[in-house]
Amino acid sequence: MVQFIFTDILMLSLGAVLYLMVRALPRITEEPSEKKNFLDRWAHSDVPEKMDAAFNVFLLKFLRRVKIFVLKLDNMLSKELRKIKSEEKDAKPIIDFKEIAGQKKDEDQAEE
Length: 112
Prior knowledge:
Elements: H1 2-24, H2 38-43, H3 47-91, H4 97-101, H5 103-111
């Protein structure tokens, strides 16, 4: 219970600090700097957004192709596993547990 109270006090104090910071925020003004280097001009231009859009299109197409490849590979492996499983099934003789236990012999003798 004490830990809960301390946690509440911590959260309330954090909220109060954030509230005071938000109230003081409008008073802070940003001074525009006239000196803009190449990176600042490039970051504020449309080039990064266009590069991001082109990368998203490329990534979407690439991931779709990878998905199709993985699905084809999965189908191929499933077919191979079915072949192996059917071969094993055909090769194994069916085990008759009644014969092993001797019950089948007893039933044959009872019929005679």
